[in-house]
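Page 37, continued from 36.
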């Protein structure tokens, strides 16, 4: 169990805070950001804008809202590029703070939200914060804003960064924290330089990495005859358009899953370009596993893409049912970051 964190001095620019009843903030000691929380708190306290550059696994997404709470911030907006990330991170932060979702921590995404009168941290998509500008040009509803995954540089993120640059002089009490991967955080620091041209401070946090083994499994084997192939769009041609030894993508996925299954029961994450490919692969894998009898029955296939309902997406994060020893998650790029 982690020890209670030392409470940093309150931010002088923050309004008088009303701490949540029974709120005890803990920082998991195995997260690299926990080791830098005093430095991050000091930078936020002394600057209007702070850039936190952290590698994957550093813990910046879940721990930064807690640092802001300790500094006395009452209305924190925390943006994510994707809806599924906003929901799942809200659940995780609420769990770490010992709060029910919709209480101290809530979320807002398109078509649904779970916030209450006592909510102090609101996870939301970038688009929700952008839409809030229509009725709240000064963003008075918030006294701190976290723009997470800013390195993705979507049109919405870029617009928000440009707008916030103009807004900050009119809201001197507003705190802005921008998180980015370690790719060029200096560009954000320069963009938010102060009136004297001094760039915003950058706090760098290491990530947690694990050994990665790369196995190359081409769909067209090396050495296959590719000289005498025909154009698949040429109706007059009767020759093959792919080498005879080639396999399609779904066959390749099944072969890879079987290969990994022979080595252990670890879960598998497969990335696809879209929903249709996931549906086809899920059908093929389910049929393949059914033909394996009892061995295949211990594997669960779970799709994960943006158009699934929240309940269906949440299955990926729930504990596996009894008898399931391995999960195969078929995902679009919604699983690339933050999850």
């Amino acid at each position: 169990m982690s020890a209670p964190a030392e409470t940093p001095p309150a931010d002088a620019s923050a309004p008088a805070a009303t701490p949540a009843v029974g709120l005890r903030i803990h920082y998991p000691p195995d997260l690299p950001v926990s080791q830098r929380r005093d430095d991050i708190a000091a930078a936020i306290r002394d600057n209007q804008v702070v850039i936190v550059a952290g590698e994957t696994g550093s813990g910046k997404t879940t721990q930064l809202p807690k640092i802001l709470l300790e500094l006395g911030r009452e209305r924190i907006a925390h943006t994510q590029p994707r809806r599924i990330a906003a929901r799942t991170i809200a659940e995780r932060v609420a769990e770490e703070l010992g709060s029910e979702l919709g209480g101290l921590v809530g979320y807002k995404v398109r078509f649904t939200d779970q916030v209450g009168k006592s909510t102090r941290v609101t996870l939301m998509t970038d688009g929700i914060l952008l839409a809030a500008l229509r009725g709240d040009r000064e963003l008075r509803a918030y006294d701190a804003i976290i723009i997470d995954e800013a390195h993705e540089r979507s049109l919405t993120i870029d617009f928000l960064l440009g707008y916030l640059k103009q807004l900050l002089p009119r809201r001197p009490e507003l705190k802005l924290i921008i998180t980015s991967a370690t790719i060029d955080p200096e560009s954000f620091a320069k963009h938010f330089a102060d009136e004297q041209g001094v760039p915003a401070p950058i706090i760098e946090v290491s990530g947690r990495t694990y050994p990665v083994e790369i196995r190359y499994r081409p769909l067209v084997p090396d050495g296959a005859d590719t000289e005498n192939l025909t154009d698949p769009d040429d109706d007059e041609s009767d020759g093959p358009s792919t080498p005879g030894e080639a396999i399609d993508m779904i066959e390749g996925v099944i072969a890879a899953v079987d290969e990994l299954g022979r080595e252990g029961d670890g879960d598998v994450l497969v990335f696809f370009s879209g929903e249709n490919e996931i549906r086809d692969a899920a059908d093929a894998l389910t049929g393949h596993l059914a033909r394996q009898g009892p061995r295949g029955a211990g594997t669960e296939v779970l799709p994960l893409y943006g158009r699934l309902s929240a309940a269906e997406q949440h299955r990926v994060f729930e504990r596996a049912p009894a008898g399931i020893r391995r999960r195969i998650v078929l995902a679009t790029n919604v699983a690339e970051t933050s999850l």
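The chain has eleven helices and eleven strands. Flag for discussion at group meeting. Residues 1-5, 16-21, 237-241 have pLDDT under 50 and may be disordered.
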